[in-house]
Amino acid sequence: MSSLYSTARVRNKDLSSYWQDTISRTFVPCVTTLPRDFRGAVSVSEIGSISCHRVQATKHHACRSAADISTHHKDVVLLNLITSGMARVVQDGREAVLRKGDFAIHDATRPYSLFFDTAFSQLICQIPRSLLKQRLGSFERYTAVRLSSDEQVGHLTSNFLLNLSRFDNSVDPIMGERFTAQTADLVAMTLGTQLGSANVSRSTHRSALLYRAKSFIETRLRAVTTAEVAEALGCSTRYVNDLFADEGTSVGNYVLSRRLERCREDLIDPINLRRVSEVAYAWGFNSIAHFSRVFRARYGMSPTDYRELHAANGGAS
């Protein structure tokens, strides 16, 4: 952890302003209500587009209101993973009571409250909201819902997040973005598996199916058809196309987008020394001319120019 904030040396009369400022700077602006004997510490690290915060504190209450949101909009989702004690997460008319090993998400773009009724420790991961929306569609129904690490996918996710939080800020940017994508995948998978069998709305069911379709495509990105996706989901090809139409795209366009992104990642990876044509063929393109044309349309330059520009900029994306 590269940054550490603690009340250990803060005078009692300054505790409230210090902690509120710390929470507002490291997370999002909110109002904290503290007892006179409050104590707390936060350590922070950045991995790709995700920030991980380890928090240890005594009991208190935090609230993010519509006024806080209007003055400081931050398009992120926060995941609370309890490592000791307990917490309550309240949002969208629901309350999740979390104990050791449990976790839940809340959306920083809408009001929420956090209640810590005892001393506690937790890991908070701040995830770009767009990443979960890409995987789950509308995810309002997933906020303030208890997720358990006793379940297989939940256990995998919680262990991954705890290990991720031990990295420092020296993680290579390319690896950092890969960790970011893996985090979003695991969190979305946990939400889908633990809540997918519940009695949820049709839109939530479609979002879960769409996530499963995308996950299937990701494992077979080099060669995949709509019929194969439909067979994996146990539905018709027409229904699969309807799922992707909900996001304004099609199976073919989604596959093309993901192949281009994989090629882009390989082209800027300093360890990957394959030629442009080899990269294209590796990710399912059968024509270099076609690959060059669609790559230029997406990124504004040829694959070769994109690689050379990235190298000239010292690896900056």
Structure, described:
The chain has 317 residues and is of the alpha+beta class. It folds into two domains: 170 residues, Jelly Rolls; 110 residues, Homeodomain-like (Arc Repressor Mutant, subunit A). Helix content is 45%, strand content 22%. The protein has twelve helices and twelve strands. The strands form two sheets. It has a seven-stranded antiparallel β-sheet, with helices on both faces. Strands 2-5-10-7-8 form a five-stranded antiparallel β-sheet. Strand 3 and strand 4 form a beta hairpin. Helix 5 packs across helix 6 and helix 6 packs across helix 7. The longest helix is centred in the middle third of the chain and has 23 residues. It is globular. About 2% of the residues have low confidence. InterPro entries: AraC-bd_2 (IPR035418), AraC_XylS_family_regulators (IPR050204), Homeodomain-like_sf (IPR009057), HTH_AraC (IPR018060), Tscrpt_reg_AraC-type_HTH (IPR020449). One of its GO terms (molecular function) is sequence-specific DNA binding. It comes from Eoetvoesiella caeni. This is AraC family transcriptional regulator. Keywords: DNA-binding, Transcription, Transcription regulation.
Helix content: 40-55%
Kindly identify the CATH topology of the largest domain: Jelly Rolls
* Alpha plus pi helix count: 12
Poorly predicted ranges: 197-201
Structural class of the helices, strands and pairings? Answer: alpha+beta
By CATH, the architecture of the largest domain is named Sandwich
Number-wise, the strands total 12
Give the SSE string: EHEEEEHEEEEEEHEHHHHHHHHH
Within CATH, the superfamily of the largest domain carries the name Jelly Rolls
Number of individual domains: 2
Overall mean confidence score, pLDDT: 87
What shape does the CA trace take? globular
Question: CATH top level of the largest domain?
Answer: Mainly Beta
End-to-end distance, in Å?
Answer: 24 Å
Q: Strand portion, in percent?
A: 15-25%
Radius of gyration: 22 Å
Mind summarizing the main beta sheet?
A: 7 strands, antiparallel
Strand order of the largest sheet: 1-3-4-11-6-9-12
